[in-house]
Amino acid sequence: MYFIMNILSAIIASYGLVTNSAAVVIGAMLVAMMLGPITGIALAIIDHRMPLLRKSLFTVIAGVSLVVLVGFIVGWLHKEQPLTAEILSRTQPTSMDLMIALAGGTAGAYAMVSPHLSVAVVGVAVATALVPPLAASGILFANGEMQLGLGALLLAFTNIIAIQFTNALVLWLLGFRRLIDDDYKSSTYLTFLRRNAVTLLLLGGLGAYLTINLQTNAKQQVFESSVKETINSYFSDKGNVLTNTQFDKTDSNQIVRAVIRGETKPSSYDVRQIETIITQDIADNFPEYLPIRLQLRYMPVQVIESHPLIQDKLDETDVTILTN
Question: For an engineered disulfide with 135, which of 14, 76, 213, 324 has Cβ 3.0 to 4.6 Å away?
Answer without folding.
Answer: 14
